[in-house]
């Protein structure tokens, strides 16, 4: 009798220890449609990119950063505004795989920021994305004075023409200057992850002047409006 009662109690205890996992309406374990939206990235219609850190001196490693004051995602069909602070910069944009991270890009640049020699900067460098695809190949300088892979680049504001003549870098001024800084507006129509990197070889290769941003589906398109 006592053994029967103990067996029944053990069965109830085992059942209580096993978690019950329900299927949500969308067929995913433990998640409903609303929870599934938590990981979605919300973009802005106009993404501001500080090309060169505001308040720093041009031509110094302290200036050679790309900052994103209002996030790293812009809506599909939205605009990215590159604001050039100080001179010596050239804006370039490349498409990369969506799993690409900073370390993937850094692997093709100077091993330790702001420590490489002129000979290293002038050598050929290959940048790859998170899938191992070549994003940009610099070639050697000479003849390629810019980090400008003409066969892969989407945007190049100081591009090298015909492999010989290098484009002029932007002058750039402080954001509080009388006429304001140089600003370049570019509309992005295709979703995905993008690399923005300075075309100045010293800035990009030696000082890691680059950043990653995403073009995402707009909220009104997700809702079918």
Descriptive notes:
There is one protein chain. The protein has about 220 residues and is of the alpha+beta class. It folds into 2 domains: about 1-35, no CATH class; about 45-220, Immunoglobulin-like (Sandwich), CATH 2.60.40. Helices cover about 20% and strands about 25% of the residues. It has 6 helices and 10 strands. The strands form 2 sheets. Strands 1, 2, 3, 4, 7, 8, 9 and 10 form an 8-stranded mixed β-sheet that branches. Strand 5 (about 125-130) and strand 6 (about 135) form a beta hairpin. The termini are far apart. Mean pLDDT is about 85; it is low at about 1-35.
Output the radius of gyration.
Answer: 25 Å
In helices, the fraction of residues equals 10-25%
Report the uncertain regions: 1-35
With helices defined by DSSP (H or I, 4 residues minimum), what is the helix count? 6
% residues in beta strands: 25-35%
CATH fold category name of the largest domain: Immunoglobulin-like
CATH-level-2 architecture of the largest domain: Sandwich
In CATH's first tier, which class of the largest domain applies?
Mainly Beta
For the record, what is the CATH homologous superfamily label of the largest domain? Cupredoxins -  blue copper proteins
Find the count of extended strands (DSSP E, 2+ residues): 10
Number of domains: 2
Query: What is the CA–CA distance across the termini?
Result: 67 Å
Q: Tell me the overall shape.
A: globular
Structural class: alpha+beta
Overall mean pLDDT: 84
């Amino acid at each position: 009798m006592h053994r029967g009662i103990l067996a029944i109690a053990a069965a109830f205890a085992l059942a209580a220890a096993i978690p019950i996992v329900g299927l949500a309406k969308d067929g995913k374990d433990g998640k409903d449609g609303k929870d599934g939206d938590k990981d979605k990235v919300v973009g802005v219609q106009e993404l501001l990119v500080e090309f060169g850190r505001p308040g720093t001196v041009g031509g110094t490693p302290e200036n050679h950063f790309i900052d994103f004051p209002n996030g790293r995602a812009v809506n599909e069909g939205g605009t990215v505004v590159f604001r050039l602070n100080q001179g010596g910069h050239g804006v370039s944009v490349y498409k990369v795989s969506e799993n690409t991270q900073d370390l993937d890009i850094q692997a093709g640049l100077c091993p330790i920021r702001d420590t490489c020699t002129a000979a290293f900067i002038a050598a050929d460098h290959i940048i790859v994305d998170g899938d191992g695809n070549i994003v940009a190949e610099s070639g050697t300088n000479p003849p390629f004075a810019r980090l400008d892979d003409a066969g892969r680049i989407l945007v190049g504001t100081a591009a090298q023409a015909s492999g010989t003549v290098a484009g002029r870098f932007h002058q750039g001024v402080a954001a509080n200057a009388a006429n304001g800084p140089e600003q370049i507006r570019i509309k992005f129509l295709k979703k995905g992850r993008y690399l923005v990197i300075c075309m100045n070889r010293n800035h990009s290769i030696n000082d890691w002047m680059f950043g990653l941003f995403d073009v995402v589906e707009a909220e009104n398109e997700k809702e079918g409006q």
